[in-house]
């Protein structure tokens, strides 16, 4: 079919630039903590929230400012104390994504090493450390002493702002009611907004259609079928 949409879901990775971060009530406190660095009351900060809430974007803003090494919690699996010592000596800051997956002893040693060197850890996870099933008492006590800040999922206003920015970045114009329709019917995450706007752009170009509510409905239906 000539008008068949081939969804281009292989989007380029987001830049996570500070200017691309959309501020809202649900992330205001977390951004304030990121901006407060290095004036933190502990060597570590925990940033938590559901998928798509923007915590990774916040973490990458901090990583640029602090020149942090970015790693996954699972990257600590199998690391010896010597390995962790070399890591801590090589960087002033470490960002650990999915920190709840890190082995407890590895995270414990890394925390101590960074504290000894005046470094910092940003731990990103879906839940705050107080809700992790931590067996090692010394690790639990250290993480309890560190501030933990939550990021809320995008509300209607924030999600609409993200969609509008994505449209503006692509120099696209959406008809009346399109953004409100998308906000009401799509997955509530910044990443989903990127995919939806990219698909709108592709389909509008392929089929030479205006970006209206009917096109928005078609795109959401195709995205749902592809998932």
Descriptive account of the structure:
By secondary structure, this protein is α/β, with parallel strands linked by helices. The protein folds into 2 domains: 23-150, Rossmann fold, CATH 3.40.50; 156-226, Helicase, Ruva Protein, domain 3, CATH 1.10.8. Helices cover 47% and strands 10% of the residues. It contains 9 helices and 5 strands. It has a 5-stranded parallel beta sheet, with helices on both faces. Strand 3, helix 4 (104-116) and strand 4 (120-125) form a beta-alpha-beta unit. Helix 6 (156-169) packs across helix 8 (190-207) and helix 8 packs across helix 9 (213-226). The model is unreliable at 1-10 (pLDDT under 50).
CATH class of the largest domain: Alpha Beta
Task: State the helicity in percent bands.
Answer: 40-55%
Compute the number of strand runs. 5
- Radius of gyration of CA atoms, rounded to a whole number: 21 Å
Number of distinct helices: 9
CATH superfamily of the largest domain: P-loop containing nucleotide triphosphate hydrolases
User: What class would the helix/strand composition place it in?
Assistant: alpha/beta
* Secondary-structure arrangement, i.e. CATH architecture of the largest domain: 3-Layer(aba) Sandwich
Low-confidence stretches: 1-10
Strand content: 5-15%
Number of domains: 2
Strand order, largest beta sheet:
2-3-4-1-5
Give, in order, the helices and strands: HEHEHEHEHEHHHH
Q: How does the major sheet shape up?
A: 5 strands, parallel
How far apart the termini lie comes to 21 Å
**How is the CATH topology of the largest domain named?**
Rossmann fold
- Mean pLDDT over the full residue set: 91
Q: What spatial form do the alpha-carbon principal axes imply?
A: elongated
């Amino acid at each position: 079919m000539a008008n068949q949409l081939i969804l281009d879901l292989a989007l380029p990775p987001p830049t996570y630039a500070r200017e691309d971060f959309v501020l809202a009530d649900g992330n205001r406190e977390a951004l304030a903590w990121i901006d407060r660095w290095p004036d933190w009351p502990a060597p570590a900060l925990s940033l938590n929230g559901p998928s798509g809430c923007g915590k990774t974007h916040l973490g990458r803003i901090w990583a640029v400012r602090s020149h942090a090494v970015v790693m996954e919690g699972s990257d600590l699996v199998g690391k010896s104390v010597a390995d962790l010592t070399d890591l801590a000596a090589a960087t002033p800051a470490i960002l650990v994504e999915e920190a709840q997956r890190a082995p407890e002893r590895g995270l414990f040693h890394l925390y101590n090493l960074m504290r000894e060197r005046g470094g910092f850890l940003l731990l990103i996870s879906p839940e705050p450390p107080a809700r992790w099933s931590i067996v090692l008492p010394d690790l639990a006590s250290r993480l309890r002493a560190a501030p933990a800040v939550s990021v809320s999922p995008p509300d209607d206003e924030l999600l609409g702002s993200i969609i509008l920015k994505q449209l503006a970045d692509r120099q696209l114009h959406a008809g009346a009611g399109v953004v409100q329709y998308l906000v009401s019917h799509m997955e509530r995450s910044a990443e989903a907004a990127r995919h939806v706007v990219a698909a709108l752009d592709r389909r509008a170009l392929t089929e030479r259609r205006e970006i209206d509510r009917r096109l928005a409905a078609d795109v959401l239906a195709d995205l749902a079928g592809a998932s």
